[in-house]
Structures are given as structure tokens and as C-alpha cells.
Amino acid sequence: MTRMILTIDTATPAVTAGLVNLDQAGRPTVRAERVTVDARAHAERLTPNVLGALADAGRSMADVTAVVVGCGPGPFTGLRVGMASAAAYGHALGIPVYGVCSLDAIGVRTTESTLVVTDARRREVYWARYRDGARVAGPAVCAPAVVDPADAVLVAGSPAHTELFGLPALDIAYPTPAGLVAAVRDWDHPTASLVPLYLRRPDAKPPIAAAAPVLLGALVPGDAVRCAELEAQLFGGDDPWPAEAFSRAIGARDHHYVAARVGNTVVGYGGIARLGRTPPFEYEVHTIGVDKAHQGRGIGRRLLADLLEYADGGVVHLEVRTDNTPAIALYRDVGFVETGLRKRYYRNGADAYTMRREGLS
């Protein structure tokens, strides 16, 4: 099927809109592109750039069959302009909307091992690392001096920041229409709910939310949609589970799924499965996730403790991204050790450690 795709990105100072034709073989052709580099003009320039790109391509909005939008990481004010507009276009036209990581729209066009950095303000950068166009680390935000280039031999992104890393710089400063389209991993499954990648916690939090008690209880099928939303927020590039997968897992035999709730809202979840049919049983942790707004409160540790209690002293296995330092530290703290490395384990090419906790006598 031939697609006419409207592309939008406002995660960087570049206000980008473009039209890309995707033929039946999946080959993209950029029909038009309008870019305004002005960190203070996202709201003012996006609509004119969209209309200008349509005019340049000789198309109307009725010709658009899909929208692809960069979901960050990026500053709140600019990012919400593009995402809200993309959602509005999709709703008004009745067409699918695909959200992608804006860093991926740069990194997907790179080769070898490449570091991508963009301006996060506050003397920090958003960054991710890619190997032959697939993300293997990040996205994250920190001071440039803290970024670990690892084996990167090239750098791309914000010119003011690429020069800080002493690597040859590629001439790819901002997400482009071609890059945004290339960053879509699965055209058969549009993004159910666009989730912005802010990465930073809000500067101000409602006191009641910070003080509200977190209660653990059973995860039920009715929680599947909320869990899928959190998966997309936390693991957007790592094969996040859709709601259907949660529904199947929650009701499956020999599975144990637990929810952390603040009031009636699920803010964390975890799942484990018993392996085999005869004792001594071993177990595999399927997933653990905590809403970013509630991280740092020990919820992940409590969820893991509940799963390990279900394992009842049996051997427990799990996989974790090699760059997920907080999770690895937690697992080590309760007795897990690395047992192997799975190269390119996740859909985006990131590596994973396999970890094991021996049975308790």
C-alpha cells in the first residue's frame, strides 16, 4: 500500500514538517520539507510549516494517510506542540499516528557506532547511542561530561554539543522527515497513545501525590490498557507489551502478576511465571515497571519482593538491558548475578544481560 505521510517534530529547536511518500515496497521519497530553527517558535511555526510542505508537494490534507511525530526527548513546551498537533490531525482525518523517539530519527540514518546528542538545556544533553542505525543505549539526559560514548566513533546531533565529544561529527543536526519515517518499526501497529519522552521528572509535584500511599495487590485484566501505557512510556524502543499481551499473561496458568496502586491508578506492575511442570520449579520474571512520576519511592523493590515471594525460594531468571543501571543494581542487591549476554536482544538492537538468582535452601 502506498502511503502519503505527514511528518512532524518539535523536540529540538528545529520546527520540522514534511511530506514523505512510502511506496508498496517501503521505499520512502521526501516530497517536501519545511524547517524553521527557532527554539521559541514551535507554536507559531508548526502549522505554517505543515501547510507550506503540503503546498510544496502539491497535496492537500485529504491526501495524507498517516502521521509520524517525534515524541522526544525534548523540552516540555516545544514537544507538546508537535505531539498535540499530530494527535489532532490523526483524529480529524481518521488516520493512524505513529510516535517515534526523536533521537532515533537522527540515529537511524547513521552507520557504525554513533553517539547522538541534542540540547536538553540546563547545561545537559539528551543522548542515545546507535550501532548501524539501531539504538543500543539511551535515551537519557545528563551533563555532557557524564555521557559515556563507549565505543562510538562518530557523533551526530546538535552542533553546539557534538563538538564536546572529540569525535568526527556527521552532518545530521535535527530529526528529518526521512529519518522520522525510517524510525517507525512497525507500520501495522500505530501508536495507541502518544507518550512524551521528557526524561526529567517535573520540577513541581503535587504534595498529595508524593504523600499518597502505594498499595500492592493483584493485577487484573482490566488493568491491561494502563499497563500497556506504562510499557510504552518506559520501554518504548524495547518491544513494549501491548494491552493484549498483558491480558493473556495476567490470566495464564502458573503466572503471578501484581499491581502497585495509588488510589485507583496503577503506578507499577510486575509479573513472573513458573517454568516446567515438575519440581523443583524454576521461575522467570517477565516484567517490572514503575511510572516515571513515582520512581524513587521503592516501588520497584516492593514489586520484585512480591514476585520473589511467589517463587518461594526457587531459582529465578530474568533479562535486563545492559544500560539499565538502576535495575541491575536492584537485582544484584537481592542476589541476582549476570550469567550471559544476549546481543541485540531487543527490537531496537540493544543488548541484554541474563541474570539468575539461585534457589534458597
Give your account of this protein's structure:
This protein is 27% helix and 32% strand. It is α+β, with helices and mostly antiparallel strands and 361 residues long. The chain has 3 domains: 109 residues, ATPase, nucleotide binding domain (Nucleotidyltransferase, domain 5); 61 residues, 2-Layer Sandwich (Nucleotidyltransferase, domain 5); 151 residues, Gcn5-related N-acetyltransferase (GNAT) (Aminopeptidase), CATH 3.40.630.30. The strands form 3 sheets. A 7-stranded mixed beta sheet has the order 10-11-12-13-14-16-15, with helices on both faces. It has a 5-stranded mixed beta sheet with strand order 3-2-1-4-5. Helix 1 crosses helix 2 and helix 7 crosses helix 8. The longest helix is centred in the N-terminal third of the chain and has 18 residues. The chain is globular. The mean pLDDT is 90.
CATH topology-level fold name of the largest domain: Aminopeptidase
Q: Describe the main β-sheet briefly.
A: 7 strands, mixed
Low-confidence stretches: none
Q: Please write the CATH class name of the largest domain.
A: Alpha Beta
What is the ordering of alpha helices and beta strands? Answer: EEEHEHEHEEEEHHHEHHEEEHEHEE
Determine the number of helices (DSSP H or I, runs of at least 4 residues): 10
Number of E-type strands: 16
- Percent helix among the residues? 25-40%
Globally, the shape reads globular
Question: Strand portion, in percent?
Answer: 25-35%
